[in-house]
Specification:
The chain has 476 residues and is an alpha/beta fold. The protein has helices at residues 14-26, 50-55, 69-74, 142-158, 173-184, 204-216, 270-274, 322-336, 366-371, 424-432, 437-440, 457-474; strands at residues 5-10, 32-38, 78-81, 84-89, 94-98, 107-111, 114-117, 121-123, 136-137, 165-169, 188-192, 220-222, 227-232, 244-249, 253-255, 258-261, 265-267, 299-301, 308-309, 316-317, 350-354, 357-363, 376-384, 395-403, 409-416. The protein has twelve helices and 25 strands.
Length: 476
């Protein structure tokens, strides 16, 4: 009997282990051996849940783990933890690994018939003085989250009633979510960002709403400020020594008992680059619709290390989200397992919150639409989450972009209180279907006073966008 073929997975989180699990459902161990390597201590966990664990909304770290290494092994996947892949030999169809617990130098080669690259993303960490000092924390993995939580507990115990101060560098999704988490823990929080407004995933006018809300929650939000260093307890020129005590910008110094970095992420593709695999403008791996790395029949990639097709702009882009990673894994697993599947692309949907403010977007921002040469109109609409007379009704602002001439929906942003965020899904479906704002006005959405006004806020914006498209055409 011929030996089983081997599938090797690099990365033990969402995309990689979803692919492995899907293949195992389709193919037995006698047909395909599955070996997965993970350099960390945890597998298949929700990194998106880390801020809510830090803030206390999630009780325990293990609540974020969907499947443990042992559970994967019980399902026929040879998952090897704390083992780092250090090289991919494309021509030789093998990977080099390093296991610190193994004898000798811990290095070994493992051959593959199918290779899945799911190396994720790395947090951006600029080369600034003091950036690696004790007390400066990134938040990308469960290990990062545990280290931060341990540090917070230590500082809280030593505070002796003194109000603790936290500085969050960066005001993207992770930045604002960590600002909320630290606020809930009782810290005085300062958020420092070099952009004009927080949340550059929104247009500046919508980001301003986020800033106003954050300030109203007691946070200090410093924008247009470039961080130049992290000051430590050690004085003198060696700012990398000692514990972090302040964040320094070009104009001011902000004292800190803890510093959290929320500067975003970049695709972790150093292995792929060294192996000569194709990368896009953002450094993410390029794949076809089947999630096969371009030009390589037996190498696949998914998750935060890839670029995906933006269905609105028609270009590839890097979007690090667990929703995409799990779908990539399903597609890869189906194709390796002998079925057929494709990943059609994304429209750029994301939703977040800071305290009671909900923040959502899908499609293109104004700058993105201009960059790809689209002509468009923009409208904003103020509306309520429920019928205005119904108790608990909350206001929200909806911004919508529509293409001139065609009226095609290009993007939607929503900022508001309870009931605002998930309304972005209406626009996400419309974008995926290529609908016009005129077509959207006739969507048959559910209505009852406890859930929505007669005209849902998204449809109010669609009506305004339709009128703006018609007015723009009439003015030509």
């Amino acid at each position: 009997m011929a030996a089983a073929r081997r599938m090797v997975v690099v990365g033990g989180d969402a995309a990689g282990m979803t692919a492995a699990s899907q293949v195992r459902r389709l193919r037995g161990a006698e047909e395909l051996e599955i070996v997965a390597f993970e350099r960390g201590d945890f597998s298949s966990y929700s990194a998106c849940g880390i801020p809510y664990w830090i803030g206390g909304s999630v009780d325990a770290r293990d609540d974020l783990i969907a499947r443990t290494p042992q559970q994967h092994r019980e399902h026929g996947i040879d998952l090897r933890m704390r083992t780092e892949v250090t090289e991919i030999d494309v021509d030789g169809q093998r990977v080099r690994t390093r296991d610190p617990s193994a004898s000798g130098d811990g290095e070994a080669w493992t051959g593959f018939d199918e290779l899945v690259i799911a190396t994720g993303a790395r947090p951006l960490r600029p080369p600034l003085p003091g950036i690696d000092a004790d007390g400066v924390h990134g938040v990308q993995s469960l290990e990062d989250g545990q280290a931060l939580l341990d540090a917070l507990h230590t500082r809280e115990k030593a505070a002796a009633g003194r109000k603790l101060r936290a500085v969050v560098v960066g005001a993207g999704y992770i930045g604002v979510e960590m600002a909320e988490a630290l606020t809930l823990r009782g810290f005085d929080v300062t958020v420092v960002d070099q952009a004009a407004q927080p949340m550059t995933t929104l247009d500046p006018d919508m980001g301003e709403l986020v800033r106003d809300a954050m300030c109203g929650m007691g946070m200090e939000v410093v924008t247009g400020a470039k961080v130049t260093a992290v000051e430590t307890e050690e004085s003198g020129s060696d700012r990398s020594a000692g514990r972090a005590r302040a964040v320094v910008t070009q104009d001011a110094t902000y004292p800190a008992d803890v510093v959290v970095l929320g500067l975003g992420v970049a695709p972790e593709t150093s292995l792929a680059r060294e192996a000569g695999l194709p990368l896009g403008e953002s450094g993410g791996l390029l794949t076809d619709l089947a999630m096969r790395v371009r030009g390589h029949e037996n190498i696949w990639a998914g998750g935060d290390c890839v670029e995906v097709l933006d269905l609105v702009s028609g270009r590839t882009r890097h979007i690090a989200l667990g929703t995409h990673a799990n779908k990539h894994g399903q597609v890869i697993g189906a194709n390796i397992g002998g079925a057929y599947s494709t990943f059609p692309g994304v429209v750029g949907t994301a939703v977040s919150k800071v305290c009671d403010l909900e923040i959502a977007r899908t499609g293109l921002l104004e700058a993105q639409a201009s960059q790809v040469g689209l002509q468009f109109v923009t409208v904003t609409a103020e509306a309520t989450s429920r019928a205005g007379y119904f108790p608990g009704s909350e206001s929200m602002r909806v911004k919508m972009l529509a293409e001139c001439g065609t009226g095609r929906l290009l993007g939607t942003q929503i900022v508001g209180r309870a009931g605002a965020g998930k309304r972005v899904d209406i626009a996400a479906v419309a974008l995926s279907a290529g609908m016009t704002v005129g077509q959207m006005t006739f969507l048959d959405l559910g209505y009852a006073p406890p859930f929505s006004p007669v005209w849902d806020p998204v449809l109010v914006a669609a009506r305004k966008a339709k009128a703006a498209v018609e007015a723009e055409a009439a003015g030509k």
